[in-house]
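Customer escalation, tier 2.

The customer says the design service returned an amino acid string that "doesn't look like it belongs to this structure." They asked us to rerun it and document both sides in this ticket. The original structure tokens are below, unchanged.
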């Protein structure tokens, strides 16, 4: 049997009476109660399996962070009076994309990569991480930065060959009769051609006639310049 009452402070107390047959061996009920309590459902939020309250404050400043196993953005928005909605973050990139859009997805990718490297004391320029995030999200969604993502997002055989499983990509390109216009930067580098970016985006031509005229004029003026 079980009864519920209140203590002088108003807290609820549950008293459980268990009737057992006579036994000589003692039973430790504390571990049994702990197991039952862990399985008891008091309040449930779909998508959230577990929550832990962490104090990330420094010194006398307390900064409580609620770390959840799982994600439920709509339910978090309902707690606007208790949590800072502008500080919500998650490593579920798909959830960020579907809820906040591709720009937030890009920012989340940069944030998560930065967090991984910061554990080892490694700092990376945000512009470098921005290039990775741009590549992963420029199509409006996000794709993995691995051979699977490159295989599905690139039509350049030489670009695929430069990443991983070169033999597999070569064989597949030969069987399918694939062609390559050598426009991709990785493809141009592997073929020994300058990439079409920066100083490689234009041609620098030497005007010999103009140089000869300038040299003649300078000689007449008394200057000596060797070309």
């Amino acid at each position: 049997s079980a009864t519920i009452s209140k203590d002088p402070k108003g807290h609820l107390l549950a008293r459980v009476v268990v009737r057992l047959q006579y036994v000589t061996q003692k039973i430790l009920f504390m571990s049994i109660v702990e197991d039952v309590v862990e399985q008891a459902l008091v309040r449930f939020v779909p998508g959230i399996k577990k929550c832990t309250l962490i104090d990330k404050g420094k010194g006398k400043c307390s900064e409580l962070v609620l770390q959840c196993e799982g994600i439920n953005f709509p339910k978090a928005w309902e707690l606007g009076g208790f949590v800072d909605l502008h500080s919500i973050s998650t490593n579920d990139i798909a959830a960020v994309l579907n809820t906040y859009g591709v720009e937030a997805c890009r920012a989340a990718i940069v944030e998560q990569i930065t967090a991984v490297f910061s554990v080892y004391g490694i700092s990376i320029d945000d512009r470098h991480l921005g290039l990775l995030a741009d590549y992963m999200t420029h199509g409006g969604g996000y794709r993995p930065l691995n051979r699977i993502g490159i295989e599905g997002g690139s039509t350049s055989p030489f670009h695929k060959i430069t990443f991983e499983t070169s033999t597999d990509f070569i064989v597949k390109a030969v069987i399918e009769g694939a062609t390559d216009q050598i426009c991709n930067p990785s493809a141009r580098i592997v073929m020994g051609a300058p990439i079409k970016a920066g100083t490689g985006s234009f041609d620098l031509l030497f005007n010999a006639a103009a140089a000869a005229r300038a040299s003649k004029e300078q000689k007449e003026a008394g200057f000596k310049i060797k070309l």
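Tier 2 assessment: The sequence is consistent with the input. The radius of gyration is 33 Å. Residues 2-39 form one domain. Sent an explanation to the customer and offered a walkthrough call.
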